[in-house]
Specification:
This protein has about 180 residues and is mainly alpha-helical. The protein is built from 6 helices and no strands.
Length: about 180
Amino acid sequence: MEPMSSSVIVFALLVVLLPAVFAGLLSLGFYYILAKAQPAISKLAPIVIGLLLAVLVPFLSFVPPIRPILPVLNLVVLQMGILTPFMLIRNHLPDRHHSTILFSGSVVTVAVLLIYGFAMAFGSEAPSPVSQFLMSLPLSEIGLPIMSLVMAYLAAALISAVIFGAVLAVVAAFRRRKVRSG
């Protein structure tokens, strides 16, 4: 195996896959907490928690004892974005596969976000479309981090909605096939 390909594999495992698996486990923890709540609360909670944290985290960055946990709070914002579409469609998915679908969708979503982030950071010199949009807004010094976290929440929600929508389409196709075959 060439040294270049082995370094790419190590990079993929340590920098992309390991955090993505951790995020998947974290999303399962949040799911089990939210699944115990009333149906209406469990559907709205990821939206409220995600957007509330997106607004609060930049203000909490000024509190020195909280600074070490800011990356975890940012990850929680992403997890709430991932849980938002899942909580809306989970009743249409097979009950025994909720955990597997959520974990897999979370891992893929976070991996896509990490790869996109690395591509933007180490790729071309041009800023990302999200950065261009945020820089065009007349935001205060604290407004930019807030909008950045809101955009991260929305990106996670959009990517996971596509993933969970594809899973839902496959489940619906199998159900139709099962009904037709008798």
